[in-house]
Here is the input.
Amino acid sequence: MSGWADGDPKAIIKFMLAVGAGEADMVTTDTLDRDAGCFEAGQDQNCARGGSFYWDETNKTSPNFHEHLAWVKTITTGIGRPMLWWQTPFGVPSDTPGGTPGHYRDNRVRYIFSHIQEFIDAGGVGAAFGTGAGNQTYIDSDGDQFKTAVTKYLAAPVALP
Here is the structure.
């Protein structure tokens, strides 16, 4: 599922059920296919679409994580299947928009690993991380953010329902 295809979760549910998603083991969606900062910097042809991509972690202004998770919860409930996030970017949080190739800002790693229960409550079963395109932040350029988050998580994993 993707909000850029149709932001209306009811339309997405109807379509997905029509193509058999109700019989699947799980459904998938993305949070963003590239680092938010790549779009903000406006220098890479892979990040040439408009919009607001850095989500508010306080969930007070839009776009934010609670909006996304409410959208996902509507879909997982409507289809009756759990969600797996994929293409989740590795960017590192920053108060400064943009960044440079291989070092763009994004806050999805930090938010997901510090709010795992919110993702489970929305019907989530996991997240797969990736770059989506060249020049993005990766585990070899994120200052060990991802490694640290995964190590901490593995020391005290959260059980799925």
Notes: DSSP finds six helices and five strands in the chain. Strands lie at 27-30, 83-88, 99-100, 103-104, 124-129.
